[in-house]
Write a structure and sequence with these properties.
Elements (H helix, E strand, L loop, with lengths): L1 H22 L4 E11 L8 E8 L2 E6 L7 E7 L4 E4 L1 E3 L13 H5 L2 E6 L12 H10 L4 E4 L1 E2 H8 L9 H16 L4 E5 L10 H13 L3 E5 L8 H11 L5 E3 L9 H17 L4 E5 L4 E5 L14 H22 L6 E3 L9 H8 L3 H9 L5 E5 L3 H8 L4 E3 L11 H16 L5 H8 L1 H7 L15 E4 L20 E6 L2 E5 L2 E2 L7 E2 L3
Parallel strand pairs: 1-4, 1-5, 6-7, 7-8, 8-22, 9-10, 10-11, 11-12, 12-13, 13-17
Antiparallel strand pairs: 1-2, 2-3, 5-18, 14-16, 15-16, 18-19, 19-20, 20-21
Length: about 500
């Protein structure tokens, strides 16, 4: 009896010992983040956990906060939020000129999307350009789209309203080749030339190619004016019968109020219910930014001769511009952002030069002489749009653009829309800046804080997040992110940037 008991006791001790041994984790991780309040990018409630990183990947999320691990670097994140890095679905910039992209890193953006508004690098084969970007090691991850306007130019279609069969085939071939190089889709800029010349049949044929390659069409729609925004969205929805579609920087120029915002969202929701895969993005500012050509009539822009228009139709052009600017909230609502008048609005320039603002536009700037910020959106309407489950956050900004959105969009969502206005919870805000964006783009293994996903991470106290950029000083870096990791490497810490750059040129399989 005694022998049996001793044998049983020895067996139990052996099992306990084996259990302890099998429970040990002998891995030496690259990074061990302890006691973090995890918001994982799905929209689910936060939870406390330990997160382990190895070789640029999230390899373990452990909810037992007492469990011990071994790592080259340990961080106690108690009291801090750990989230996926933000994904900017509509950004601008040249990674060969400004590969650091510090403006994006400072506001927690770890992945940007380039090739927007119908314009991408003017290359028939993007693979060489993408390899150049690989070689400079960009500061953030980059996902590429090919621009419809660029395809029109490269194919020789250019300003043709109805491309020949040969021209259309060349456009489709260029689009297919771009997909072979790993792009995520096509962008259109139908408010700009030469995309504005395109018609339904051409856009449908290209949409079919996008759909066949499991891509997405992101569109700066044909007209964002309140009277036309519905028709412009419907034009995009027609392409949505062939492929998922996405409204870039959703807005209503001149539209007013929450009810109008709900009407626009109803159009999107109805299409979604009918099986169209429709989404949108939006930046949290009431001023847009684009080239000054936006206020000029089509007949004064390329391919027309502007000098000839001025010589033969100046009074008509003056009248058009006078009405257009007054319609857009007056000359004080147009803030010039580039060229010799950068930082001044049209009213100030008009007074300085002692001439009507329409003559300033014709004689001193011209349709291609500047970019500008235009205070044309209604806050109540835009805040209604941003709350939709179909809308994620973007910046539509760049390192050089004279608009605070390129330096402040994502922190403003937390500082103003979450902390101050209580438009939505922090979990939902982060979902809009991470998981929803990744899902829309079909961006694999990013956008969520999940085992097996790439370690693009942010560590921060939401009360410390601050948008510092203004219209007067648009290039001031955001504050408050304690840590920004890209592919498992710390890229920024408390406003200081790493010497190396750790982003990648992402390619869609």
């Amino acid at each position: 009896m005694k022998t049996s008991f001793l044998s049983f006791l020895a067996f139990c001790l052996m099992m306990i010992s084996c259990g302890q041994t099998s429970g040990n984790d002998d891995t030496n991780y690259d990074l061990w983040i302890k006691n973090a309040q995890v918001i994982d990018g799905t929209g689910a409630d936060s939870y406390t956990a330990q997160v382990l990183i190895l070789d640029g990947e999230i390899v373990k999320i452990e909810k037992d906060t007492e469990k011990q691990f071994s790592a080259k670097e340990e961080i106690d994140a108690e009291g801090k939020i750990l989230s996926p890095g933000f994904i900017d679905t509509h950004a601008h910039g040249d990674p060969l000129e400004t590969p650091e992209f510090k403006n994006f890193l400072a506001m927690g953006v770890t992945t940007i999307t380039l090739g927007q508004d119908g314009y991408s690098p003017k290359k028939k084969d993007l693979s060489g350009w993408m390899k150049e970007v690989d070689s400079v090691n960009p500061g953030v991850n980059i996902a590429m789209f090919v621009g419809h306007n660029t395809i029109r130019r490269l194919s020789g279609v250019n300003y043709e309203k109805f491309p020949s069969e040969k021209g259309l085939e060349e456009m489709k071939n260029l689009l297919k080749k771009a997909f072979d190089n790993g792009i995520f889709g096509m962008t259109t800029g139908l408010e700009y030339n030469p995309g504005s010349f395109s018609e339904k049949e051409e856009l449908e044929e290209l949409a079919k190619v996008v759909g066949e390659n499991d891509g997405l069409i992101m569109s700066h729609i044909r007209n964002e004016d309140d009277s036309e925004v519905g028709n412009s969205i419907r034009e995009l929805l027609n392409q949505g019968k062939c492929t998922p579609v996405h409204v870039s920087h959703l807005k209503s120029v001149y539209g007013k109020g929450q009810d109008r915002g709900r009407e626009i969202l109803k159009l999107l929701d109805s299409a979604k219910n009918e099986g169209i895969q429709i989404t949108a993005d939006l930046y949290p500012y009431n001023a847009s930014y684009t080239g000054i050509a936006i206020v000029f009539p089509e007949w004064a822009k390329k391919p027309n001769d502007f000098e000839e228009v001025v010589a033969t139709r100046k009074s008509e052009l003056q009248e058009f511009l006078r009405y257009k600017i007054e319609q857009r909230n007056g000359p004080e609502a147009t803030l010039i952002g580039s060229g010799k008048f950068a930082g001044k609005n049209l009213k100030e320039i008009s007074e300085e030069l002692n001439k009507p603002f329409e003559d300033v536009l014709i004689e001193d700037i011209g349709p291609y002489g500047a970019g500008g910020a235009y205070f044309i959106m209604d806050e109540g309407l835009q805040k209604t749009l941003v709350q939709s489950d179909l809308v994620n956050i973007c910046s539509d900004g760049s390192p050089s653009m004279r608009h605070p959105r390129g330096y402040g969009s994502f922190p403003k969502i937390i500082e103003t829309y979450v902390n101050k206005d209580k438009l939505f919870s922090l979990e939902k805000a982060i979902y809009k800046m991470t998981g929803l964006a990744a899902k829309t783009m079909k961006l694999e293994n990013r956008g969520l804080l999940k085992e097996g996903y790439r370690a693009d991470l942010l560590l921060f106290d939401p009360k410390e997040i601050e948008e510092t950029a203004t219209y007067e000083k648009p290039h001031q870096l955001a504050k408050g992110f304690d840590g920004v990791w890209i592919n498992g490497k710390r890229a920024a810490q408390n406003g200081k940037f790493a010497e190396g750059r750790f982003g990648e040129m992402l390619r869609k399989d």
